[in-house]
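Question (not urgent): is this output format expected?
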Amino acid sequence: MKKNTLEEQVHPFSFLQKKFFLTDAASELEILTQMPKEQITFFLNQAFTKKRKIIVQLNHLAESSFSAEVTGYIRYAPFKKPQIILENTITHMTYLINPNNIRHIRLS
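Got this back:
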């Protein structure tokens, strides 16, 4: 069993990475090419109108060191902020995604 010592730095939220399938190594997650904004908008509109399940790969955020892929259905956003509500019915998770943080979208 591995012991945590003062020399080893343990991130206080490292358990969240395993629970919510967030990865911190590029080898675990295939980083796909950045899609153009017009293509992202097209895919989002199609997924919403046709009620299709999608996988969204997010860009690295400045305040985090991990990449993430989230899966779900786009839901109607009742507010006028530029956010996308992605709901995963299997894990009962709801994600609020800024469209500028989307790297790639594909059908599930």
